[in-house]
Design the sequence.
C-alpha cells in the first residue's frame, strides 16, 4: 500500500520518468485525492454510495465524466507495466540497487495448498501490457497481469492509498510466459 503522492513521486524518481498532468489527474480521481471528486460523483456517479464513502471514482464514473482520462489511465498502466511490476516486487522506494529484491518466494506448507516456489525477478521482463478495469462495482479495480490495484484505506481516512495485490496463480503464469 502506498499513498497517491508518494507513489507518483517514487515512480518518477525510480524510473526517471515524468508522469503527465492528465495521468496524475486520472490517478487522483480514480484513487481519491482530487478535491472535486464529490462534485463529479454527484453529477456522473455510477456507484455513488461506494464512491462517496471512499471519495474516489470507479471506472464507469470516470468514463462518464471524461472518457479520455479513463483511457489515459489504462494506457499509462499498460505503457509502464514492466516498471509497475518492478516497483511492486523489486525496487519499491529503495534508492540503492543492492536493496532491490531479486526473488519472490511463495511458501505454504499447510494442507492441500502446499507449495514452495521461488521466482527470479530479473527473468520476468516481458510483462504483458493488458491492464483492464475490473468488472465489479463499476470498475473499482485495475486488473494487472500479476494481480490488481485498488483504492484502500485501512483507517478509513481520505485520501486512501493505492493497494497492489498480487496473485500466486498470475505470477506462476507470468513466470512461464517470461521464460
Sequence:
Amino acid at each position: 500500500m502506498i499513498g497517491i503522492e508518494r507513489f507518483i513521486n517514487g515512480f518518477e524518481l525510480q524510473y526517471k520518468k515524468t508522469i503527465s498532468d492528465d495521468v496524475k489527474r486520472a490517478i487522483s480521481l480514480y484513487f481519491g485525492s482530487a478535491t472535486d471528486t464529490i462534485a463529479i460523483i454527484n453529477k456522473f456517479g455510477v456507484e455513488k454510495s461506494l464512491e462517496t464513502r471512499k471519495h474516489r471514482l470507479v471506472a464507469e464514473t470516470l468514463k462518464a465524466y471524461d472518457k479520455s482520462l479513463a483511457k489515459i489511465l489504462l494506457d499509462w498502466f499498460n505503457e509502464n507495466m514492466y516498471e509497475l511490476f518492478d516497483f511492486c516486487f523489486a525496487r519499491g522506494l529503495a534508492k540503492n540497487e543492492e536493496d532491490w529484491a531479486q526473488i519472490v518466494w511463495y511458501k505454504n506448507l499447510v494442507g492441500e495448498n502446499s507449495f514452495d516456489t521461488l521466482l527470479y525477478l530479473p527473468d520476468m521482463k516481458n510483462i504483458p501490457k493488458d491492464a483492464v478495469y475490473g468488472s465489479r462495482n463499476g470498475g473499482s479495480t485495475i486488473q494487472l497481469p500479476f494481480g490488481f490495484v485498488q483504492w484502500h484505506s485501512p483507517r478509513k481516512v481520505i485520501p486512501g492509498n493505492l493497494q497492489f495485490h498480487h496473485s500466486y496463480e498470475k505470477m506462476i503464469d507470468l513466470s512461464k510466459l517470461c521464460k
Observations:
- The radius of gyration is 17 Å.
- Residues 67-79 form the longest helix (13 residues).
